Amino acid sequence: MPEVLEKFLAEMGFALLEYTGNRAFLPLAELPPWFRELWGESDSVTIPVALADKSAFLENFLLEAEAFWQEASSAACRSETWLERSSSGRDIPLQARALHLGGKRIIAISSPDPEFREQVRILQTARNALLDHERLSREIQKKEILLHCIVHDLSQPLSVMHVAMDCLSEEPISEHSKQFLTLGKLASNQQETMIRDILHTFAADLQASLDAGIEGTASADLLECARKSMTVLLPTFETKGVRLRLDTGADLARPWPVRAEESRLQRIFSNLLENALRYTPAGASVTVGVEDEGAFLKAYVEDEGPGLPKDLRPEQIFGLFMKGKQSGGKAGLGLYFCRITVERWGGSIGCVTLPARGSRFWFRIPRAAEGARPSTTDVKSTRFTPENRALHTHPLRILFADDQKDIRTLTTYQLKRNGHKVVAVRNGQDALKAFRKKQFDVILLDQEMPGLTGDQVAQAIRKIEAGKKKSHTFLVAATGNTGSEDIDRLKALGFDSVLSKPFRLEDLHAILHATPPGRAASLDHTGATRAGNVDFSILLTRVGGDERLLARMIQTFLHDTPKRLAAIASALRRQDVEDLASLAHALKGSISIFGAEAARLKAQDLQEMARSGNLESAQPLMGSLKEEIANLLANLRGYAQQTPARPTSHRAKRQRPPRKRGEPRR
Amino acid sequence: MLQKKICMLGSFAVGKTSLVRRFVEGFYSDVYQTTVGVKIDKKNIQVNGGEVSLVLWDIYGEDDYQKMRWSYLRGASGYLLVADGTRRATLEKARQLEERARQEAGAIPFVFVINKCDLRQDWEVDDSFEMQMRAQNWSLLRSSAKTGEGVEEAFSLLAQKMLG
């Protein structure tokens, strides 16, 4: 080999060896220092080196190289980097390459030390970053779980408080006590808002980056959201004596589409309105308005309070846990939630003290194309409206699973009071057992129960329904986690609706009222009011609101009806058409008191059949009449158990209006 | 002396190099130093009354930056499959590596080691996972390169399995 080439290879740190077979190599040039450090001196280039015996890696590589030489492939045959430890303990990085040169089988080995160190440095940085990311993700996950546990634990007693106060408000209590009750409700509502703020804020923070893309295509109507939030908060404003008005300076008839998610946009308005109310004195006003800024639409809430706190800069007001000195016990999360949510949508938020008095909180969000996809993600889209409430006032067969005894007791009491049949169980296993035994219209499942969770029960129920081809049961999840991701997850698990915890009975009633009739009133084929579907509120109105009187009427009906049915059955057996017509007529009259239209129609059919003298179809008709009556009796019995009747004399005395001066004593 | 080649397989940063170092040199360092390429070590151990030389191929952990070169398994008598008990994803990765190793090298003996058992408070492995693995006849051990727990046992068990 020419001397210059030898020097070049030595300079480059290459060991060039010819493979002589039998795992031995003949050096073709002077061997570099690293080679000698690793595998000893080789004074003569004519003595073959048994490299494969010295290096396990090269032994392995030799197999690849031999295949390469045999195939005479043009593709490169290179090894990755490997490390050999010298006798002095130094790790030397090496790379090998098989070559065909002048008909010789060559292996070139080099030590790419500087490049290798650089490669290690880059990979070390990248992998450290990956490990940090994994570690942080785990930390966030742990905190999220902890947060949800805390929220769950805080929500449980709140649920009891809400339901207990709801129950209490329906009891006959003095006006004085009602005021205390209102105060209690306000305080528990405030507590609930704070808990929700914590949950929503942290959840929003966590999801900020993930949601950006999803929400880019969603839209909501800015003005519509403002109106909805105002409607919800109006009673609170009225209680405090603060006027709430919408600025009519803008065109309120046109759409105001923005790229935002509706429920969170409403929450922003609610937070700003609650904030304004907190600082506005009685007799003053809070004004909500919208403005068109071209690519952005702007909303603002103006109050007539003392203006922004002087110790905080406007941007600080939207900071985490930031609250003024007169914050009214809030957690300092509401405005922070507003900022991170608006910024996520590509908007901005700010506030300013107004020249005269008060302050203005504003935010602007990118305008959405009109007709963009509405951002409704809520399962509660089937929720209560006055229209469907009127349609579905029927009693339902409800299975209620909650591990908390107080919640079970109070909710069951209230549901039964509303005429529903309730089976309450304390865990998921019992819920599944009950579901297997009985048919229910609605199943309300707490999410976090020992053993089987609400999610698991829902999945099992849907599986059973699919397997046995059972009809679809309306499943409601009771949960403290009602972010759009949670709701999507619950939907995917088979839930039809979500009740956020701590729940109020009015929310539950709203969901029950909105339960699709095909599921709830599964036995109703006639379209008439079912025998079980008694609207006790209407009945109560008919008897002047006297629950005791109604209970008395029900007890009479419960007592008399079985006897009437027995008499009808007897008349039918005897084919006594005259007696049968008379008895069916009497039964029809008593049924009609309770508005059970389907049962009344069947009694009427029987009466007419008897009058016609043709009793051919009377037996099956009698069967279905008995079924309707049984439903009605069961329903009335449930009501009667909740409301024991008192002697009529007491009732009459209480209901009698006060006698006017000069009016004769009755 | 009988010589047996063992490969170390597993995700990056599960502790393969630390296990080898603990086993061969009795040394441990808390500083994570990523492995680039392959490093080969040897250690002689007594198995069933005879001495065996274990040739340990410490191969870089597979990730997005470096893909495993399966030709390294050529001639291997067994492998130590390593996962990090504090990182659930590395357990799933171990399953994938085992499947691939079976395709490449056939059903050669292996021992599954869940490393970092000194960090039990951060453990992401539940008992059911271990039961599931054992139900598939996997030889499973918990180890800590830091404390040395289970390290000798893992290599010895693998050596015994390799020697039949």
Structure description:
The complex is a heterodimer of chains A (666) and B (164). In chain A, strand 1 and strand 2 form a beta hairpin. Chain A folds into four domains: 109 residues, PAS domain (Beta-Lactamase, 2-Layer Sandwich); 162 residues, Histidine kinase-like ATPase, C-terminal domain (Heat Shock Protein 90, 2-Layer Sandwich), CATH 3.30.565; 128 residues, Rossmann fold (3-Layer(aba) Sandwich); 107 residues, Four Helix Bundle (Hemerythrin (Met), subunit A). Chain A starts with a helix and ends in an 11-residue tail after the last helix. Chain A contains 23 helices and 18 strands. The radius of gyration of chain A is 40 Å and the shape is elongated. Chain A is α/β, with parallel strands linked by helices and 666 residues long. The C terminus of chain A is likely disordered. The relative contact order of chain A is 0.06. In chain A, strands 1, 2, 3, 4, 5 and 6 form a six-stranded antiparallel beta sheet that branches. Chain A has a five-stranded mixed beta sheet with strand order 8-10-11-13-12. A five-stranded parallel beta sheet of chain A has the order 15-14-16-17-18, with helices on both faces. Chain B is an alpha/beta fold and 164 residues long. Chain B has a single domain, classed as P-loop containing nucleotide triphosphate hydrolases (Rossmann fold). Helix content of chain B is 30%, strand content 27%. Chain B has a six-stranded mixed beta sheet, sandwiched between helices. The model of chain B has no long low-confidence stretch (mean pLDDT 92).
